[in-house]
Amino acid sequence: MKGRKIILLILKLLVSLFLLYTLISRIGYKTILDSVKGISPLIIISSSVIYILATYVSAVRWRLLTFSKLPTGRFFILYMIGSFFNTILPGIIGGDAVKAYYLYRETGNPGISMASVFMDRYVGFISLMLIALLALPFGLTYIKGTEIEYLFPLVVIAFVAGSIGFFRLRVGSGIKILREFYSFFDAYKNIRETKPLIIKTLLLSGIIQLMGMLSVFLIAAGLNAPVPLLSILLFIPIIVTVSMLPLSISGLGIREAGFVILFGKIGIRPEVAMSISLLWFVSVVLGSLPGFLFYALYRKK
Length: 301
Known about the structure:
about 80% helix; globular; 14 helices; mainly alpha
């Protein structure tokens, strides 16, 4: 099992390196460096601060999903630890698994620990889709006549179908592992506050996603790139969705290709689009670094 995990990690690394090499060789590393040099470090720091604030809001959302009386600060620490593992050490130890494990250590409830981590991701993805759907009628001109015009509805349909199959039909419940996984979500069925809870967490998720998009907007403005906010609202959900596929290391390469292709539709030069993507990733990495300190202190405790 460990050997298989290492092989998958190597394959993901190769995918990221191949995509990055292909993009850089076609665009030219000098043009990318010239583009990056024009940004103020304050923009990157501001973007990292926004990421940390968004992580705190994520911790508030996660706390609601656990029905826990633990302080929000505790969830923030665990969320930062998970962020560190997801961003800095991708593929070695999953950040979500770390969060679930430490929450189990705190609460002694393995079911709600696993279910809440999954629901945290799930609700976040719903809000991402909703933002894109709301922006779609106003930004349709950006993708009109392209393959993206048809790809996005297919992604939404697949997500809805998967949700129905998972939560309603419980596909694969005859398999022991899936049956145990499904049982984790029974906690949400037995609590009257589930529907108001989902509404609250969706609103928080919308704030979290918009904060991430604000970071992209700031970085684009710092590079003097004429990127309309509406295009960010429409393109970022698509890019994030594709980057979430477990094909590369932290989405590296896939995310940059998405930026180059999509923002190229509105006239953004390839080196600028790639610079925005790379600088956004750098700001996330910097914002995740406090998670290492929290991990060291938490593990020692």
